[in-house]
Specification:
The complex is a heterodimer of chains A (about 120) and B (about 110). Chain A is an all-beta fold. Chain A is about 0% helix and about 50% strand. In chain A, strands 2, 5, 6, 10, 11 and 12 form a six-stranded mixed beta sheet that branches. A four-stranded antiparallel beta sheet of chain A has the order 3-9-8-7, with no helix packed on it. A two-stranded antiparallel sheet of chain A has the order 1-4. In chain B, the strands form two sheets. In chain B, strands 2, 4, 5, 6, 9, 10 and 11 form a seven-stranded mixed beta sheet that branches. In chain B, strands 1-3-8-7 form a four-stranded antiparallel beta sheet, with no helix packed on it. In chain B, a hairpin with a 2-residue loop joins β5 and β6. Classes of the chains: A mainly beta (about 120), B mainly beta (about 110).
Amino acid sequence: AQKITQTQPGMFVQEKEAVTLDCTYDTSDQSYGLFWYKQPSSGEMIFLIYQGSYDEQNATEGRYSLNFQKARKSANLVISASQLGDSAMYFCAMREESSTNAGKSTFGDGTTLTVKP
Amino acid sequence: KAGVTQTPRYLIKTRGQQVTLSCSPISGHRSVSWYQQTPGQGLQFLFEYFSETQRNKGNFPGRFSGRQFSNSRSEMNVSTLELGDSALYLCASSLDQLSTDTQYFGPGTRLTVL
């Protein structure tokens, strides 16, 4: 069964430093997508970055990059130059192509990131 | 392009009542999925609609139902509310169900059942 594991319930980082949030996944599908979302205290889930299973290059979006290691089934999010506004809950998610998982994303339990001034 | 909108943003109901939540997807998106988020269970998939058809359903009782209209707007309904239904209900839209299709979320509806 598909599964996402985020082993860090909470993380602290100093402002302007980089931080890595861990995510490992399990799937038997060959075709899948990995996503990271940010959820501030307001509740809205904000899409950050996407990595496809067939993508050979790691995805980057501004200060966000995804360290994709397919053999290890890991998709860690790296946030560079942390800002106070980065304090939020971060979720790793996966979408698969199989019909039984149509339209569904599987989410990890999330990591609460706190940026210290 | 306008994002995903959800109404209402907040709801307070009592046990036994029923509730209807609404979601308008991003223009051009035909897939709408619903999720329930609680502190104890995290984010759980409820169901997904595409072109007015439910294509997938999560492991929730029949009290949870939904539908999609021809303009892709979607509603979900919860009947005979229980205290455990208190949660943030998130709607997400995407172009289709492919693994490459990003799901974009609305602000959510926070339901409190008393």
